[in-house]
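step: validate -> pass
step: tokenize input -> pass
step: predict -> running
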Amino acid sequence: MNRESSVVEGFGFKPAESEHYFLVSVISPTGDVQISEHMSWNSEMWKGKIHAVKDESDERLRVTLPRVKWDLIADAVSAEFNRRLKEMGYKKGSWKGRGLTPVSRLFGKELVLLGWAIEDADPGRIPAAVANWLGLLPEERWWLYTMTNAATGQASRGRNTGWRAAVRFALCDNPITSSKAEQRVGLIANLDDKEKSIDQEKKKQGSLLDFN
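step: predict -> pass
step: emit ->
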């Protein structure tokens, strides 16, 4: 077997199979954590020549989290991903305290979804968001990411609007378990209604401001 074809970086990312991956960038021990999406593998990044997405308006940047919020989800996400990596026969991954950690395309979608749920949430609601996230099937997380990313996927421009806000409301409320399929279906079905109500409220507020 070609060694390069078997190399696994970070959490399940195999550059030889696909160059589409997500990147968790920890700039400093206390600074914000960036999660970005990349369509091509740049080996120079791992030689210290490229450190992270530097511009908040960069199209590749999906979410930025304060370090305190990242610390509240990092262990749970790592445990979930490593459980599945073990089932796949892959080596375990770990987050770097400072530096770059690549994440496979599918894992990255799931991670960003959780990041969107907590970016503007009260830290006290994060345990509920993690419980809800764990209660969803991976396929459900991928679908929710795709729906949200299509309209509000850029870190700063899509923040707190549409599906992005709806995901926060859904995942930060009543925890569900993987055994309660009807709760998962209900959570997903209600997202579209929440997204519509949020947009309607924003339009209403805009109209009132115009009137004033």
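step: describe -> The chain has seven helices and four strands.
step: cleanup -> pass
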